[in-house]
Amino acid sequence: MEQYFSATQKMEQEVMFPSLLRGVFPQEEGAAPAAESRTDLYERYQLLKAIKPMVEKGLASGGDQSPSRADTDGDTSLDSSGAEDAQLEERLSQHLTGLQQVLTHLTRDTNALTRRYSQILEQINLSEGQPSW
Questions:
Q1: Nearest Cα to 111, choosing from 18, 2, 3, 35?
Q2: Which of 67, 90, 100, 105 could disulfide-pair with 71, CB 3.0 to 4.6 Å?
Q3: pTM, to two decimals
C-alpha cells in the first residue's frame, strides 16, 4: 500500500506537463509497442490520478461498515458459525490477495509512466542543447 501511495505521489510531483504524454503509448521493457493498446500515457495518467482518491476514500471508509443481518441475528447456531468463520476467512484472504494484485499493478503502471515521462524530458533537453544550423 505504501509503495502505491509513494509511486503516485512521485508521479504527481514529477509529471508537471501531462500533455507531453499525449500520443505516447506504453510498452514493456525491450518489447515492441503493443498494437492492441490504444490507451496513451496521458489517458493512463488521468486514470491513475482519478483512482488515487477512490483508494484513499475506500481505506478511510473501511471502518464505517454497517452491521449485516448475520451480525445482528442472535439465533445462529454455534456449529454453523465455525464453518461460516472459515468461509469468511477464505473470502477475506481472496479479497486481500486480489487487492494486493491490483495495487501492485497500479504501482507498476505508475512507476512506468513516471519513468517514461522522465525519458521524454531528457529527450527534450537533449534536443534543445543541439545547435539547429
A1: 3
A2: 67
A3: 0.71
Condensed to tens digits (0 to 9), the pLDDT of residues 73-124 reads 555 555 677 888 888 999 999 999 999 999 999 999 999 999 999 999 999 9
Residues 6+ away with beta carbon under 8 Å from 3? 103, 107
Helix, strand, coil proportions of the chain in percent (round to 5)? 70, 0, 30
Q: What CA–CA distance (Å, rounded) separates 80 from 101? A: 32
Q: pLDDT tens for residues 1-16? A: 889 999 999 999 999 9
Separation CA 124–CA 126 (nearest Å): 5
- Is residue 42 within 8 Å of 60, Cβ to Cβ? no
